[in-house]
Amino acid sequence: MARVSHALPGQNKIDMTEGPLFTKLLRFSIPLIFSSFLQLLFNAADVVVVGRFAGDNSLAAVGSTGSLINLLINLFMGLSIGTNVVVARYFGAKQHGLLRKTIHTAMLVSVYSGLILTAVGVGSARGLLILMQAPEEVLGLAATYLKVYFGGITATMVYNFGSAILRAKGDTQRPLYILFLAGIINLLLNLFFVIVLKMDVAGVALATVLSQCLSAALVVLILCREQDEFRLELRRMKIDGALFMQIVRIGLPAGFQGIMFSFSNVIIQSSVNSFGAVLIAGNSAACNLEGFIYTSMNGFSQGALTFCSQNLGANKTDRIRRTVWISQLSIAVIGAVMSAVFLFFGRQLLGIYTTSPAVVEAGMSRLWVIFTTYYLCGMMDGMSNAIRGIGHSLLPVITSLLGACVFRIIWLSTVFMMPQFHRPLTIFLSYPLSWTLTFAANIVAYVRYMRHLDGERPREEKR
């Protein structure tokens, strides 16, 4: 890692305000996609190892915690998005003094965020799982996994805030190197803890925590050894109130948006739980496969966020528009093609996670619904990020609240409760219907806000 840590000024940066957009978007997005793939491999390694060597109940226990973990961390992950937007804006505007202060504020916020999450996650794990109707045979294992996972969540926060800062200047390569190394460590520790030490779900959780600690240490090392305005000096870490509020104004609504999606997914997971361990395990394996496609689309969605932010700082509205449409087309093509391939090989891919034919068929029942429309999910997120990148976070939250959270709750409490529709298919249909509604609302919002950027830079939205 020494080579990348000794970056010279001007290296590991992308000026998104000049030059060809598509090639720069590719240069930004492709390493980010691979980085996200490696993060998914953390989770996939957990699921594969417990599914193969600990049994279906352990597989269900690990898989059933995903929506709850996302629910608890998304508020603070939203602040990392706010960090990315604010840093990218100051970088595009070449306001280096404010950029430095933002970096030091954000990194300290990441530490506080992790400590808060540890207290909440460890203290409430079992109670929240009970509220989610986790089956008795899964409850104890899932609670153990959550407690170990949240015991080390500070490292996850530090890494995500640090990588958000690097992404703001277009550096998506060094986070990829970090995650490649951490992914190998995670896999080796998974195998050792589960197969050799027989630690079951506690072993895979501990492996994830230790690998994330390595990721956090390396991203901090990189920032501390930067030779430009992105240099982190630990002794100068303090929270600047005004800059923190800028991060909050962008990040808090983004976090609430993530919370609302996660809350609706928790409700969906609770509905899935009511059908027993086989469907829980199949649903968990299918969700892991979906993640690989989502992260491929999300690389361009994150590109839209950062490119729009830099060009907002440079006051170049034409490049903002071109960024949005290029990213949307890229998301649609990638989502449609990858979904078709994964659906075609669905049973073979699900067979990686489990040897149970019943679990594989349960997973396929979800994949048939999700993969035929998954590009809509990516385009929805891409449009939300574009709106957020130009400084508006409130309206995407409102559209997500109505289009995803409220709609899914109404759907599950009405249609799903009808005897003739009380089956897994009805649960899974709530996803594409909510994506369509939210995406349509986001398009309307984007058109509205772009009108305010014509001719002059808009005032920041008051919230």
Spell out the key features of this protein:
80% helix, 463 residues, single chain, disordered C terminus, mainly alpha
Polypeptide structure, described:
This protein is mostly helical and 463 residues long. Helix content is 80%, strand content 0%. Helix 3 (56-63) packs parallel to helix 11 (277-313), helix 4 packs parallel to helix 7 and helix 14 packs parallel to helix 17 (424-453). 57% of the residues are buried.
Beginning-to-end CA distance, first to last residue: 42 Å
Low-confidence stretches: 1-10, 458-463
Based on CA atoms alone, the radius of gyration comes out at: 21 Å
The largest sheet, given as strand count, sense and whether it forms a barrel, is:
none
Strands, count: 0
Report the sheet-strand fraction: under 5%
Order of helices and strands: HHHHHHHHHHHHHHHHH
Shape: globular
Helix content: over 70%
Residue-averaged pLDDT, rounded?
A: 85
Number of helices: 17
- Helix-and-strand structural type: mainly alpha
Brief write-up:
The chain has 463 residues and is mainly alpha-helical.
Please outline the helices and strands.
Elements lengths: L1 H4 L15 H33 L2 H8 L2 H27 L3 H36 L4 H16 L1 H16 L4 H24 L3 H25 L16 H33 L3 H37 L3 H28 L1 H5 L6 H14 L3 H16 L4 H20 L10 H30 L10
Helix pairs in contact: 2-3, 2-8, 2-9, 2-11, 3-6, 3-11, 4-5, 4-7, 4-10, 4-11, 5-6, 5-7, 5-10, 6-9, 7-9, 8-9, 10-16, 11-12, 11-14, 11-15, 12-15, 14-17, 15-17, 16-17
